[in-house]
Structures are given as C-alpha cells and as structure tokens.
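Reposting from the mailing list since nobody answered there.

I have sequence plus structure tokens for a pair of proteins and want to know whether others read the tokens the same way I do. The first protein:
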Amino acid sequence: MSAFNLLHLVTKSQPVALRACGLPSGSCRDKKDCKVVFSQEELRKRLTPLQYHVTQEKGTESAFEGEYTHHKAQGIYKCVVCGTPLFKSETKFDSNSGWPSFYDVISPDVVSFNDDFSYGMHRIEISCSQ
C-alpha cells in the first residue's frame, strides 16, 4: 500500500454520522486512547468484500479503479470501518497515482503512519488509528 492508497480508508464525502457505522451514542469516541472494536463477523456483514480485504487483510485495490479517485464533492472523508473523520475534501489533490491523495489530515491523532518496504521500495501506509 502506498502513501497515496487511501481510498480503502474512506467512504464518500459527506457529514460524519457515527451511528450509521454502528457506534452507540456516548461511545468512547471522545476519549483519546479508546479504540473502537468490531468483531470480524460484524465487519464481514457490514463491509463489501473489497473493503474488508483492504482494511482487515492489508489488501490494496487497483489503481485508477476506485470510485473516489476522481470524486470532487465537498465534505469529509471518513474511515469506512469506524466513521472517524480523516480528511477534508479541500486537502485532496491529483497525484496521478491512481488513488485519492490528501496533503493533510484532520488531526494527526486519527491516522497511523507505517513504513512499507514491499515491492522493492519504501512507501508509507496510512490507516485509521482506531
């Protein structure tokens, strides 16, 4: 996964509605170190096979094929698993990588950066920290 391979982390640009993701109101979302946990069974039911593969099995979708590669609507991109807001549409740019690219995150606390040395190169995997 490359630094630009972010499509699998986000859902379409729209206002964040955590209840739609299965989080109860009053969840631990307000507590900094509280991780949201979903069972694998629940995730398999709720996510598409591609979303599950990419978010849970470190898969990658094909470049230039995702529905958000050329998405231009204004809004917030959020984690497809837990609903955490990750990126604002104003920070999206065309990197010619085939995946949505953003030059900033909503908050550094909401993402994790991990080195990826696969395929003979150094890339940075960006994922939701929840």
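The second protein, same order (residues first, tokens after):
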Amino acid sequence: LFFQSYGLLEQQGLESMDFAVKKWGDTFGFFSVSQNSGLPFDIFSASFYMLTRYEEYLPHVKDEMGRFMASESLAFKEGFLQQPIVDIWAYKFKSKLMVAFPELVFPKKKMVIHPVIEAAQPYAYKQKGFFRTAIGFADGLLKGKFRDVIDRAQVVLGIKRDPLDTFKWIVNKANRSDFKLTVFFLLGNALSFGESMNTHRQKFNLLIKYVADYKEVGLIFSFNSLKDYELLKSEKRRLQAITNRALGSSINAEYLVNLPDIYRHLVELEVKRDFTMVFRDTIGWRAGTCTPFLFYDLDYEIKTPLIIHPSAMTTLAFQKKYASDIEKTVNNTIKAVENVNGTFTMIFSNKDFSSTENNKVWRSIFSEKLQEYAQ
C-alpha cells in the first residue's frame, strides 16, 4: 500500500496555505495527491491540520471576547463542520487496510456518551450575600420586575427552592443512567455582577462536595485567570481543597481558547482533560473529531499529555429554536457519532434544567435521549 504525502508533516514552522476542499463520497477531503496513492487525499496531513488547530495559529478575526469564531474555520466555510471528518477519514483508511491485509484485527470501539454541565451560576438568588441580594431587590423594584422580587424573597426566606439549584435532579438522573458526567464549577470571579456570588461560603462548598460524591467535578477557569498563571494555580488549588482529590478536568470561562498559551498552562498545572474545544454558539466539531485526542503544541512541535475532549455543541447554540428542531439536531449529531463509534459530548448548564416550560426539551434529552444511546 502506498499513501502519498502532501508535505505538511515534513514542514517546519507555520505558514498560510492555499488548497482546495473537494467532495469525497458523502464527506470531504483536502490536500489532494496523485492517483498512485491509496487514497485521493493525504488524510494524515489533513488530520494533523484539523487536530492541531493549525488555522487558529494563523492570523484571524476574533469576536469581542477574543474567541476564534466558527465562521473563520475551514470546516464552517466548506460545509463539513457537522461531520466528525477526522473519524470518517480514519474509517476510510481502515477499509483500505482491511482489503490489503484481511488478517488484521482491530480493537472494537463503542460509542461513549459523556455530557457535561457548566455550572458557572449555580444559584439565581441563594448564597449571594447581603450586598448582592439588596442590589438585586432594588434592581427588580426599579425595573418593575415584581415577579422576580417575589421569587427572590421566597428563595431567600427558604419558602421556595432556588430555580437554578437543579443539582439533586441532575445527580438523580445521572445515577440512574449509564453515561459519564462531569459537572464544572466556577470558583473565580464571574464576568457579570448578576452572576457573581461568594464562592467561599460553606453551603457552596457543600454543594460541590455533594456532586463530587457521585460524579466527576471539574473546574471552570475564570476569564481573568486565563491570562494569569498564578490565578489559574490558585483556582485549581481551591477546588482540590474542597474535593480532596486532584483536578482531572477543566473548561475555560466563555469558551475562550487562546492557542497555545492556555493549553501550555494546563500542561504545566498537570490538568488531564480540557473540555473547551467547542464553538459557543455553532453546532459542530471545532477540531473535526468526536474522539478525545492529545494536544500537540505546533510552536514547540511536541506532543503533550493534555487530552482535548471535543464537544459537539452547547445549549447556547439553540437559542430561539423550537423543541422539535432541537431534538432533531441532537438526534442527527448523536447518529453521526454512533457511525464512527466516537464520544458524544454536549455542554449543558444547570439553568437548562430549571422547571420552566422552555426547558422541557433539555430535561428530556438529558434524562431520556442520552440514556437510550448510553445503554
């Protein structure tokens, strides 16, 4: 078997490249090679391009938060963002190997369901402290939000459950399911005053311990810490002191990935898994894969021990969509993962499970749909 190289893997340094993306059966390919090659594209160079996030090192337009935008990505522009394209290529390569070497035995892969919950604001009204609560009441009265004022008063007085405190429901559903679950908490400062709370309060620490007794707890690194290594270290240390175990998983506030700096910091902090490889408001695979992979530092040209755990979507990508459209999209995305025996990860928020009518679809997907595929 002969597979021709396009040359990217032998290249040193980074440079902007001109290449065409072409249809390849039901999928796409790029880095075309000659007809003598076993495959029409150099899938090794193409996979390297996608997984290393080569395009994110090149000059590009960022959004107001400094994020790499989906609209800037090759996958979005060429229409394959919603395909786990690297996994599809791997199966094409496997088929070629099986024909040439029928005696080859491949380990069996099984689809993994691993939802995550981002709990940057665990409470709407509770645990805010006197000052924030007083400001909240005043703001509600001034803006005529009397329902909000009544709800806040009932929660503060202990008459009613905080609408965002959905953690018992989450843990109960997850304990009856076969999927993995990671819940992320924020210990640093929130970006908005309304969402901020005193994270040193005992009841907040008890909430984290309660969740950690049943499921993996991860850390949301605060927005301000992403450029401050000492702050990252301090937030990591605080979570470890609460849970009494090493930090395994993290996610960055506002889904900001500033390559390669933040990942270098995570490697130095010995964080095992990062879950930020996702587009905040666009559905699809940012790195072209639904399979966790090791972070490769393109500047230093070294493989690192940090596992990048890609997510297909956040619930924020579905704002202003009907429940039927949401269910259809989630279903199609899970099917795409099932076809390549990958890992389906979707980022929820604890807010998605509050008992409002709009959230019925999220409660159904989390408690029923994911379990269907996890069995």
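Reply #1 (J.P.):
I read it the same way you do. The first helix runs from residue 43 to 51.
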